[in-house]
Amino acid sequence: MRFLGLTMDECVRYFFEGNAIVSVIVLALITLFLFKEGFSFFGQNSTNLRVYRSAGLEFVDILKEQESGHTALTRYVSEVRLAWFRQLTGPGKLSVAQANERLQGFDTFAAQYDEAAAPLRAMLAGGPDAEASLTDIAIALKTKFLVLEDRKVERQQLIDAGKPAEAARLNLTEVDFATELKPLLAIRPLHAQANKDFAAALEDSLRALPKLPTPELDRMSTRLRDLTRQYLDSFPSYAERLASWDYSVPVPWYRSFSAFLFGRQWLTASFWQDWYGILPLFSGSLLVSLVALLIAVPLGVGAAIYVNQLSSSREQRFIKPCIEFISAFPSVVLGFFGIAVLGEALRAISGFDWLSWVPGFPFSERLNILTAGSLLALIAVPTIFSLSEDAINNVPRAFRDASFALGATRLQTILRITTPAALSGIISAILLGFGRVIGETMVVLLCAGNRIAIPDFSSGLGVVTQPVHTMTGIIAQEMGEVVRGSIHYRALFVVGLVLFMLALVINYVAQKIVTRYRISIG
């Protein structure tokens, strides 16, 4: 039988070859599109960083960074007060009014500690005779530069449209940064004296710190003193950075890449400065995926071993469809379940006194890494189970028969013969499950908490109770709101590129592991 001069076998072969070619073409087009849209980001980000430096925002941020260090210390002072207040109040103890009266001495110290930063705040305000704060000066200069750039684009558009007369009427006076930045640079001589006054005020406030009554509070008091000393030791570095700052120093070409790959902030639509750092999103995606795998791997692989090796035919007919049916649930439905049920349930369980030993318990944020990871584990279990069960099922029966003939028990055969023989397939199943969860969008968007910040790893395993944002979540949340061709738009495509490269790495590692394992058992 022939069709267009081809035999049936040739038609079937060309059909499948055509499908393969189409798949390769589609993959190539997607890759080219991602690179085309994404790589323009780095040039735009380089301009963004250059404006940040030239307009003096970088200079002001050095002072703001010094102030934020003191703000963090005042928050710790508030934590000390709260701990003392909790010890004073409670059943059979002081009333709230009595406790606040008892804490008046500490409140006086806290107010003095907070007021110590007055010299630095006065500098940021521009001084008593200043017409504008340093922040306002830098923002005005940045705005003037951006308006100039927009007019240059407008003039070029008028010239291209054949309207040279209208283009000539546009005022394109270049910004004189050296002159405009003088009010900012005039702060430098005042900074040394401000640091002296600031340090002296902090030392005086520490001498006013009252003696705290319990060992726990005393440890917190000692830690406050140590943190304050460390903060005071950082003052010379701030002075050195201000003294060496120069608006005319060019931003290195690699800064655009490093700011994205190692940046700790993802801040958009800011009146001050936009930052596009992927670390908070990458760490969030990684932590949620790891929690999901920690739950899904034992459940998926364990269920596969049980169904294939231990269960009866009746149990297999019941268990396999139930597990595989989980994958039929829409992820958005699972997300709603996480918001309405699972998140609330986990938060309530964390409040039980007998679970207070668990790291991070109790927690107040119902949408966090643990909630999202638990739901992603539910999504990954069918994938891991099905592929692992197939891998175990493909182990030659002769292996098991030989093990039983040598006197091994069923458990010994499973652990030492069947599972190792199927290990390459199980590893592939786990990696495919990992790829499944790290690419999931709706569940993490609804249940991870969407806080764009690197989690506090100092809390140990309790980090899983903190909210995070993910790479897939940020794309889904922000892509519909950005202006096409803007730096924000390009940044989201670069995040997509990172996800794409991550998928390639996962598949490459899976192939290397499987190949190496097959060689080792061969």
Count of helical regions: 23
**Low-confidence stretches at least 5 residues in length (pLDDT < 50)?**
none
Whole-angstrom Rg: 31 Å
Average predicted local confidence, pLDDT: 88
Topology:
Layout: E1 2-3, E2 6-7, H1 8-54, H2 57-88, H3 96-102, H4 104-115, H5 118-124, H6 134-160, H7 164-168, H8 177-180, H9 182-185, H10 188-207, H11 215-233, H12 235-244, H13 255-261, E3 266-267, E4 275-276, H14 279-310, H15 313-325, H16 331-350, H17 369-393, H18 397-405, H19 410-421, H20 423-438, H21 442-447, H22 471-478, H23 487-521
Antiparallel strand pairs: 1-2, 3-4
Helix pairs in contact: 1-23, 2-4, 2-11, 2-12, 4-10, 5-10, 10-12, 14-17, 14-20, 15-17, 16-17, 17-20, 18-19, 20-23, 22-23
Please characterize this protein's 3D structure.
The protein has 522 residues and is mainly α. The chain is built from 23 helices and four strands. The chain has three domains: 17-54 and 482-522, no CATH class; 55-261, no CATH class; 280-471, MetI-like fold (Orthogonal Bundle), CATH 1.10.3720.10. It has helices spanning 8-54, 57-88, 96-102, 104-115, 118-124, 134-160, 164-168, 177-180, 182-185, 188-207, 215-233, 235-244, 255-261, 279-310, 313-325, 331-350, 369-393, 397-405, 410-421, 423-438, 442-447, 471-478, 487-521, and strands spanning 2-3, 6-7, 266-267, 275-276. The two termini are 44 Å apart. The model has no long low-confidence stretch (mean pLDDT 88).
